């Protein structure tokens, strides 16, 4: 039975009852610095006897396991990031785990190291890294050994287990679709590259190479739909542009806005295909053709894999989802095909 105290027990009470210092109690709770077995057991007995509960860490230690999953991500509000985190959190909650989110603000080594240290200062059982951008890539590479880590990525990877969206295959499918409609080539407005090339850009290029089509210069818009809008104002003045694959649906909407303002008809003059399946794409006029991605399912699968690692099981190195093309109103044959 917990010892009666007239107030909520504090960490100093635990230290006094265990006969150790407050920093020693903190080390036991966080696991940040090794503590002798004898002292650790005294601290845990004092925690249990006093009913000390600062957070989930004490409960996890008493039960003999940690119940926090750390998610490290370069962003949390972008559509794909947010839905992936949603899938992780939903699966974790059902399994009795808590999710802690830490944002990786930049890809430089100092920032990445500080972010990892901040996350691992907590009693985490495992880590899921969203490897959607350079910051995520750098974080996966910098993770210390001995920590269960799973990466969520747009393409296959080595090292830690990867749950993959298979952006390369998806982009190839979208590009092939436009070529089969009769477009001589497909232009590409890209999201930031993950490494040397994103899976989406790689798939676009592979499809064009396989078809023997001209490969136009890649146009980088970052994550900003306004940048895609600016690019669209330029593309609208070119007669040689009949099809554009965008790195996500937000960029596609920026492009569609620019084409509309310039009086270019979609898809009669220019076809536009997006990526991710953002719900607003279906409400745009014309409704956006897109590659549908199940980010929530990817998050759930990543959680299952990190839990398997926590249980000393080894998940597959790469497990892929199956994106599919949703054909709507924004894509069709090129103008010359309609004149034949």
UniProtKB/TrEMBL annotation:
Keywords: DNA-binding, Transcription, Transcription regulation. Residues 311-340 are annotated as: Disordered. SUPFAM superfamilies: lambda repressor-like DNA-binding domains, Periplasmic binding protein-like I. One of its GO terms (molecular function) is transcription cis-regulatory region binding. InterPro entries: HTH_LacI (IPR000843), LacI/GalR-like_sensor (IPR046335), Lambda_DNA-bd_dom_sf (IPR010982), Peripla_BP_I (IPR028082). Residues 9-63 form the HTH lacI-type domain. Gene3D superfamilies: 3.40.50.2300, lambda repressor-like DNA-binding domains. This is LacI family transcriptional regulator. It comes from Micromonospora craterilacus.
């Amino acid at each position: 039975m917990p010892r009666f105290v007239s107030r909520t027990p504090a960490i100093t009470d635990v230290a006094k009852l265990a006969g150790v210092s407050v920093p020693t109690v903190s080390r036991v709770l966080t696991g940040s610095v090794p503590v002798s077995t004898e002292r650790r057991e005294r601290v845990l007995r004092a925690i249990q006897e006093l009913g000390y509960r600062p957070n989930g860490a004490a409960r996890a230690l008493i039960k003999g396991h940690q119940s926090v999953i750390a998610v490290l991500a370069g962003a949390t509000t972008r559509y794909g990031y947010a839905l992936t985190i949603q899938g992780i959190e939903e699966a974790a909650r059902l399994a009795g785990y808590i999710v802690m989110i830490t944002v990786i603000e930049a890809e430089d080594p100092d920032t990445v190291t500080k972010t990892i240290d901040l996350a691992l200062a907590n009693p985490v059982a495992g880590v899921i890294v969203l490897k959607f951008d350079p910051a995520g890539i750098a974080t996966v590479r910098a993770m210390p050994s001995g920590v269960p880590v799973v990466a969520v990525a747009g393409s296959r990877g080595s090292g830690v287990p990867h749950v993959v969206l298979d952006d390369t295959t998806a982009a190839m499918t979208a590009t092939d679709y436009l070529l089969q409609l009769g477009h001589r080539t497909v232009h590409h407005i890209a999201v930031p590259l993950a490494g040397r090339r994103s899976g989406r850009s790689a798939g676009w290029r592979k499809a064009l190479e396989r078809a023997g089509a001209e490969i136009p210069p890649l146009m980088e818009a970052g994550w900003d739909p306004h940048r895609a809008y600016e690019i669209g104002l330029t593309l609208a003045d070119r007669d040689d542009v009949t099809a554009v694959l965008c790195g996500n649906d937000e960029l596609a909407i920026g492009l569609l806005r620019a084409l509309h303002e310039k009086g270019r008809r979609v898809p009669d003059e220019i076809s536009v295909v997006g990526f991710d399946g953002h719900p607003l794409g279906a409400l745009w006029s014309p409704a956006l053709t897109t590659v549908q991605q199940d980010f929530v399912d990817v998050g759930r699968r990543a959680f299952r894999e990190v839990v398997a690692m926590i249980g000393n099981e080894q998940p597959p190195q790469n497990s892929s989802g199956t994106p599919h093309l949703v054909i709507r109103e924004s894509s069709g044959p090129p103008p010359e095909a309609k004149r034949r």
